[in-house]
Amino acid sequence: MIHQFKNNGYNIVLDVESGAIHQVDEPTYEMIARYKDCSRDELFSHMKDSFPDIDHQELNEIYDEIAQLESEGSLFSGEDYKEAFHDYSRRPTVVKALCLHVAHDCNLSCRYCFAAEGTYHGSSRELMSLETGKVALDYLVRNSGIRRNLEVDFFGGEPLLNFDVVKELVAYGRQLEHEHDKRFRFTLTTNGVLLNDEVMEFANRELYNVVLSLDGRRQVNDRMRPFRGSDAVGSYDRIVPKLLRFAKGRQGQYYVRGTYTHHNLDFTNDVFHLADLGFDQISVEPVVASSEDEYAIRKEDLPKLFSEYDRLAAEMVRRHGTPEDFNFFHFMIDLEGGPCVYKRLSGCGSGTEYLAVTPSGDLYPCHQFVGSEEFKMGDVFSGIHRHDLVGEFASCNVYSKPECRECFARFYCSGGCAANAYHFHGSILDTYEIGCELQKKRVECAIMIQVALADSSDESSES
Amino acid sequence: MKHIKTLPTKRLSQTTKKGGCGECQTSCQSACKTSCTVGNQSCEQK
């Protein structure tokens, strides 16, 4: 299967199954589109209709180049991984990542919060005890098999409301690393309200990644991210200086991460705002909400959002290599060192290798299912009780979703988010259409950026 | 080639031989938490 698209003046052909990416001229783009559908004579006849000035020699050149790529397996490769993946997917699963909800409590009251202001629809606000956290880490190590790299995300609510436990758990994790020959990568996802020098020093020493929440422009952020309380004051003015200071002093990975909604469809301006503030690692992504929520992204918003992603990608190409350069998480794509085909087809790992742990130690397939009793899988003290759920999530992959099987983006999104599919269609084996359309657009933009950078690099080496 | 410029990419079929070790980052343990993106993850074996 091939996928052809035009973006920012480039004609791009993706050979989906091999992963090969080609930048082509206009006649070649046209010929590739019809190459498999007609004979050489019919093809040349059509090409002469479309390109009256083209001569026979050029048509032969183009045809021969396409044929060469086809013979090399980088065009129309059509490789089928179903059998190999079938064997792989039957292997026993292990747990390698935990989303540790150290605080079901929050100091903000974000209007779109899927965690219901940190409580996850539970009746009370709750902090994880050190003892429960240690049992969770023990559970992870015990169920990780031969996996060496383990991941723990301190999540909430707002995890810095329970910072002492975070610190103790990292220390405990370091102890487990030595005892069991494992490597922990710790991440902190925080709204930044409680960031201070102590947190910064700790994060630089111990945390692999820090995710800082900020939506962008002041009015955009403050509309959705106010403090708790009756006056509901916006959080922008209080957190931006802290986040900036943190980002500038950060040693290690970080992202400033925003959510866009129906109210800021021009979200690219928020990305630029974050970049212009001085953040260079940025992730801004669509809100996931019920269609009844007034801020939910609607199908009719898609054309506007597509044009915004195009605008963002073109601007990132323009800024590349300049002091204004920044990285956008959803346009990152690792063409030469990306994951293997098994990872690309396996789905996100929720419910199998990735589990969420509540403050009381209950296990859920991922953070987005926390609070839905029907998805409670067990607890860190006694292990998994709902093996049926593990089996259901283990079967969730690109081949189990009819919409994914013929989608060009399937090797980049891995079948999408199971929670989104469930919330919109009642089945983790379904897909979330708006999310899919946005994902496809982001993949195209990410590829275009790589094509543009390769093009400008070729130009500079020629000059 | 005169009409086609091919980007250097890792051939996906090659990854079936040594892939599947499961050591790479779980996709939601990154910066998203609401979507699934694997194309930007890195292989631990490279």
Task: Please give the structural blueprint.
The complex is a heterodimer of chains A (463) and B (46).
Chain A: E1 2-7, E2 10-15, E3 20-24, H1 26-34, H2 40-50, H3 56-72, H4 82-89, E4 97-101, E5 103-104, E6 126-127, H5 130-142, E7 149-155, H6 163-180, E8 183-190, H7 197-206, E9 209-213, H8 218-224, H9 236-249, E10 253-260, H10 268-277, E11 281-286, H11 302-319, E12 327-328, H12 341-345, E13 354-357, E14 362-364, E15 378-379, E16 383-384, H13 387-394, H14 402-405, H15 410-413, H16 418-425, H17 433-462
Parallel strand pairs in A: 4-7, 4-13, 7-8, 8-9, 9-10, 10-11, 11-12
Antiparallel strand pairs in A: 1-2, 2-3, 5-6, 13-14, 14-15, 15-16
Helix pairs in contact in A: 1-2, 1-3, 5-6, 11-17
Chain B: E1 4-6, H1 15-18
Structure overview:
The complex is a heterodimer of chains A (463) and B (46). With 463 residues, chain A is of the alpha/beta class. Chain A contains 17 helices and 16 strands. An eleven-stranded mixed β-sheet of chain A has the order 12-11-10-9-8-7-4-13-14-15-16, with helices on one face. The two termini of chain A are 36 Å apart. The chains are: A alpha/beta (463), B little secondary structure (46). Chains A and B meet through strand 3, helix 3, strand 7, strand 8 and strand 10 of A and strand 1 and helix 1 of B. Strand 3 of chain A pairs antiparallel with strand 1 of chain B, so a sheet runs across the interface.
Key phrases:
heterodimer; A: 463 residues; alpha/beta; 11-stranded mixed sheet; 3-stranded antiparallel sheet; 17 helices; 42% helix; 16% strand; globular; B: 46 residues; little secondary structure; 1 helix; 9% helix; 7% strand; flat
